[in-house]
TrEMBL record:
The keyword Transferase applies. GO terms for molecular function: alpha-N-acetylneuraminate alpha-2,8-sialyltransferase activity. This is ST8 alpha-N-acetyl-neuraminide alpha-2,8-sialyltransferase 6. One of its GO terms (biological process) is N-glycan processing. Belongs to the glycosyltransferase 29 family. It is a single-pass type II membrane protein. It comes from Neogobius melanostomus.
């Protein structure tokens, strides 16, 4: 893949926004995402969008769950952020492309930083991936495999997540039945250990509407859209300028052609992925070339 020819350095715009992105295209995507998916109100399960006695329909298996008092009391009253549009957001994937990128300072300069799947940030990584985190997703398989579903000692988990400060931990609580139990346990663990992190649950309604929206735009996200792509969609709604880092679903660097590890922190490939990363990625390239977001591959210029 020769990216130099694919990624446009400065897309054509009718009205150019600061940072070089295109104002009209950004507005178009924000308003159509807002109308069709409404991430501001719907991305997180809240007491407002999921009142008592209503039914939650899971997004990965045929299952429903009534919102009981017990469940309801764990939902935040309202969406964790107001509907004020932020200026800059960084969405950080975990691709090996971030290795040696020196993108840490650029990432940390964003007002709102979204990360995926509880990635490590220490160990000399911060120069390349930054430290700031406002929202981080947590895949149930990590909680299960690495932290024994938090049924045993939980201190190591709480200590580990202190690297994210007071960020929101975003859990797919209503994907499969086991995710609900696991997400509740995670929420209780964070509370019981007085972690500064707050657990929030992904709303399966939002995931369904995103899937429908992007399929209508011609994206074929495989069985299930990746969390990274969902986070890019959310950022497009809540932010004027979206910078995307760490997304590069290929084994070689686009400029230096050196081989890359699967993640910036390990080379563990998924056993069987339900996602279609290259299809999602080619859409990110399209959005980049339309001036809707900025995709960063390769090194970041010194700040
Ligand atoms: C990153 O830099 C180190 C040290 O210079 C080098 O050994 C390594 O091969 C580089 N990795 C990549 C993927 O560029």
């Amino acid at each position: 893949v020769s990216l130099g020819k694919t990624l446009h350095p400065m897309p054509m715009c009718f009205i150019r926004w600061h940072y070089g992105l295109c104002f009209m295209e950004i507005l178009f995507h924000r308003s159509s995402l807002g109308t069709n998916c409404n991430g501001f109100q719907k991305a997180f399960v809240t007491q407002t969008n999921s009142p008592l006695e209503t039914t939650i329909v899971y997004d990965c298996e045929k299952r429903t769950r009534t919102v009981t008092e017990d469940l309801f009391s764990n939902f935040p009253k309202d969406a964790p952020f107001s509907d004020k549009i932020l200026d800059t957001c960084a969405v950080v994937g975990n691709g090996g492309i971030l290795t040696n990128s020196s993108c840490g300072a650029a990432i940390d300069s964003a007002q709102f930083v979204i990360r995926c799947n509880l990635p490590p940030l220490g160990n000399g990584y911060s120069k390349h991936v930054g430290k700031k985190t406002d929202l981080v997703t947590a895949n149930p398989s990590i909680l299960k495999n690495k932290y024994g579903s938090l049924t045993g000692r939980r201190r190591a988990f709480v200590d580990y997540v202190s690297i994210y400060g007071d960020a929101y931990m975003f859990l797919p609580a209503f994907a499969y039945a086991f995710c609900t139990t696991l997400s509740m346990t995670t929420l209780y663990t964070l509370e019981d250990f007085r972690s500064s992190m707050k657990a929030v649950f992904m709303n399966p309604d939002y995931i369904r509407s995103l899937d429908k929206y992007w399929r209508a735009q011609g994206v074929k996200p495989g069985l299930r859209m990746s969390t990274g792509f969902m986070m890019v969609s959310l950022a497009l709604e809540i932010c004027n300028n979206v910078d995307v880092y760490g997304f590069w679903p290929f084994n070689n660097h686009p400029y230096g052609f050196q081989s890359l590890t699967h993640h910036y922190y390990d080379d563990v490939k998924p056993y069987e992925s339900p996602h279609a990363m290259p299809a999602e990625f080619s859409h990110l390239i399209k959005l980049h070339n339309q001036g809707v977001l900025k995709l960063h591959v390769g090194e970041c210029p010194p700040q």
